[in-house]
Amino acid sequence: MNSKYIAAAFAAALIIGAGTLLSGCANTESAAEAQTQKSEDRDRSHTQSKPQPVQNAEQEAIAVHELAKRQTHAYTSSDQLASYIAPFPGTYQDHGRENYQQFRDNGVQWCADNPVSTFSIDVDSASYANVRRLLNQGQLPTPDAVRVEELVNYFAYNYPAVSDRNVPFSVYTEMGPSPWHEDRKLLHVGIKGWQDHQSGELPPANLVFLVDVSGSMRAPNKLDLLKSSMKMMVNQMRAQDLISIAVYAGAAGEVLAPTSAANKATINAAIDNLQAGGSTNGGAGITLAYNLAKRNLIKDGINRVILATDGDFNVGTTDINQLERLVESERKSGIALTVLGFGSGNYNDHLMQKIAQIGNGNAAYIDTINEARKVLVEELGATLQIIAKDMKIQIEFNPAVVETYRLIGYETRHLQREDFNNDKIDAGEVGAGHTVTALYELTLVGESVNIADPLRYAHSKRQAEQRNNEELAFLKLRYKQPNQDISRLIEHPLYARDIVKDIDDTSEIYKFSAAVAWFGQVLRNNKHVQNNSVQQIVDLALEARGSDNFGYRSEFINLARTAKELAVTSVDLPTPAQPITQTSSIQGYQLR
After folding, report:
1. E strand residue ranges, 36-127
2. How far apart are CA 185 and CA 189, in angstroms?
3. Given the DSSP bridges, would you call strands 362-365 and 336-341 parallel, antiparallel or unpaired?
4. Which contacts of 160-166 are long-range, i.e. CB under 8 A and separated by 24 or more positions?
5. Residue 212 β-bridge partners
6. At 72, is the secondary structure helix, strand, or coil?
7. What is the DSSP letter of 141?
8. Sequence-ordered list of residues with C-beta below 8 angstroms from that of 21, at least 6 positions apart, any chain
9. What would the pLDDT profile of 380-416 be if each residue is shown by its tens digit?
C-alpha cells in the first residue's frame, strides 16, 4: 500500500480517537453534573419527606396527585406510544441496586409486662419467590430480603373449609414443641378464606394492566417474562371481563382501551407490541391506570389495577412517601392494587411492598413462568377477589400459663394495641381461597431456662389474680366485609390442655410450616434460634411434604439443601448484586 495512504489512514484514526476521547470526557462531565443534580434532588426529597403538620397532609396529597396528572400524556395507540418508548441503549446497568426495607427481628415479650400482641395479616408471597431466585443464582439472600411470614404463607395449608358463608374464613389453631428450641412451644394460627362460588367462578372483572416499559425492563427476565405472564392470565378471563393496558416510561399512555376478554387476539397483539426504553415515571402511570379503572368501574365486581414493574422509578414522582400518598388517595375509589415484581439487580422490593399494602392489594414476585402460573392461574381468585379487608389479629396471653412469647415474622405489620378496635386503621386483605398463617414461639411458666433473672419486685397482686390456668391465650380477629367500613369481631379461646407434647404427634400442617419458619429465621441469622441445622429442617419438611401435587414443597426442600451448600461456599461466589459482606453473617451459623 502507498505510504501516503497509510499516513492518511493513521491521521484519520488519531482524529477519530481524539473525538471519541473528548466525547467521553464530555459525557463523563455531563454524567457527573447529572449525578450532582440527582443528589441535590434526593436531598431535597428527603427534606420534603419529613413529617408535615396534620392540617397540610390532604393538601400535599392533592398536590402530588395533580403533579402526576400533569406528567401523564394522553396517548391512545401503540404507534403513538412508540415515539417515546424507544430502544434503550445497551449500556444500561442495573446491578447492585436492589432495595430492601431494613427491619429487626421481633424480640421476646414478657407476658407479665406486655400480654397483648397485635398485627395486620399478610398474604403476600413475594419474599419467598425472590429468595428462591437468589438461591438459584448461587447467592445467599441478604437478611432484609427474607420476610419469614411470606415464606410460610407461600404454601397453602389444608385448613378446614368454611361452614358458614356469613363468616368469610375459618380459624385453625395447633400447639406443640418448637423444633429449633427444646425449651419452647409453638402456637400455629391458620386462617382460610372461602371462594365466592363452588365452581371457582369470579364476579365480572375490570382489570387495568399498568406495565413498566422503561429501559430497565429490557432484560429477558423482565418485560419478556411479563408479556408471557400477562397472556397466561388473559387466557383465564371471560367475555364479561374488561382488560385495559396502560404503560409508563418517560411519560404514560393508554395502549389498549377497555376490551372484552373475548377478544383475546386483540389483547395479545397489544401485549406483543410492548417495547422497553426510557426512564421510569411511575407516579404518572399510577394516576392514568386508576383513571382508566374508574371510567369502567363495575359495581359489585372486581376492579383492580395490576402494576407490573421492577420498581425502579427514577423520574416524576419518585419519593416513596409521595407514592404511598398517591396510592392511598386512589384506593378510596374502591379499586384494589396488585403489584407484580420482575427482574434482578435493580429490583425495588421496599417500594413494591409499601404501595401494595397501602393500595389494599397484594404483592408477588415473578421469577419464572411457573411462578406466573401459580399466581395468575392457580391462585387467580385469591389474587383478584377480596373477601375480607382490614383484617387484624390480636392475641392476649395468660401470664399464669405463658411466661414469654415471640411473634415469628410480621415485623413490618405491627400494630398498636389500640389500633385493633380502630376501624380507621388500614390492615391486610384476604382473597378468595387464601390461607394465612402466623406462628408464635412460647415459653410456659415453670419451663423457662436461662431467659432472664426473676424480678425482685414482682407484681405479686397481679400474679395472684391470674386464677385461670386453663386458658393459654385469647385470640381475636377483626375484619370488614369488602363493601363495608364497620368491622366484625371473632373471638376464640386457646387452652393449655391442647398442647401436643411430642412433635411426631403434630399434623403435617404444623411440621411443614414450622420447617419453613425455621429456615427463614436461619437465613436471617435470628439470634433466638437455638438449633440452626439445615439438615434437620430438610428432614422435618420431608416428613411433612404430603401429596405435594404441584411440587412446591419439594422445591422448598431443595432450596434448603442449596442454601446449606452455599453457606459453605458463598465466600467463593461474589457477585455485583450480592457483596460477600452481605452473605458472610450466615456463615457464623455453621450450617450443617
Report:
1. 109-110, 116-120
2. 13
3. parallel
4. 160/192, 161/192, 161/194, 162/192, 162/193, 162/194, 165/194
5. 248
6. coil
7. P
8. none
9. 988 998 889 999 999 999 999 999 999 999 999 999 9
Q: What angle separates helix 57-71 from helix 320-331, to the nearest 10 degrees?
A: 90
DSSP secondary structure code for residue 22 in this structure: H
Residue with cell 420534603: 48
3-state SS string over 244-289?
A: EEEEECCCEEEEEEEEECCCHHHHHHHHHCCCCCCCCCHHHHHHHH
Task: Look at residue 166 and tell me whether its pLDDT is greater than 80.
Answer: no
Q: Which residue matches cell numbers 436461619? A: 522
User: Cell match 375459618: residue?
Assistant: 170
Q: Name the residue among 142, 145, 147 with its Cα closest to residue 583.
A: 142
Q: Which helix (H) or strand (E) element contains residue 395?
A: strand 386-397
Tell which wins on pLDDT, 558 or 358: 558
Please give the average per-residue pLDDT across 357-373, as a whole number.
90
pLDDT at residue 125 is higher than 80? yes
- Pairing state between β 386-397 and 471-480: antiparallel
For residue range 317-344, what is the model confidence (pLDDT) as tens digits?
455 677 777 777 777 788 988 999 998 8
78 has a pLDDT exceeding 80: no
Characterize 546-581 residue by residue with b for buried, 16 or more Cβ atoms within 10 angstroms of its Cβ, and e for exposed: eeeeeeebeebbebbebbbebbeebeeeeeebbeee
Extents of the domains making up the chain = 109-196+387-448+463-587, 205-383
489: Cα within 13 Å, side-chain hemisphere: 10
Cβ atoms of 253 and 88 closer than 8 Å = no
DSSP character at residue 151: H
| Cell numbers at 113, concatenated | 409486662
* Mean pLDDT for all residues in the chain: 79
Q: Please check whether residue 491 is in contact with residue 475, taking contact to mean a CB–CB distance below 8 angstroms.
A: yes
Q: Compute CA distances 572 → 96, 264, 338, 586, whole Å.
A: 18, 48, 38, 14
Q: Interior CA angle at 255 toward 73 and 84, to 5°?
A: 50
Task: Give Cα separations from 208 to 316, 452, 498 (angstroms).
Answer: 21, 54, 48
User: What pLDDT shows up at residue 96?
Assistant: 61
Helix (H) or strand (E) holding 428: strand 428-431
Q: Where are the beta strands (DSSP E) in 496-581?
A: none
**Euclidean distance between the first and final Cα of the chain, in Å?**
70
Q: Which residues lie below 8 Å from residue 198, measured CB to CB, with a gap of 6+?
A: none
Rounded to two decimals, the pTM is 0.79
Q: What class has domain 205-383?
A: alpha beta
CA gyration radius for the chain? 26
- Rounded to whole angstroms, the Cα distance separating 482 from 502 reads 41
Q: Let me know how long the chain is.
A: 592
- 280, three cell numbers: 421510569
Residues β-bridged to residue 336: 304
Q: Which residue has the cell 505510504?
A: 3
Which of 563, 583, 562 shows the shortest CA–CA distance to 571?
A: 583
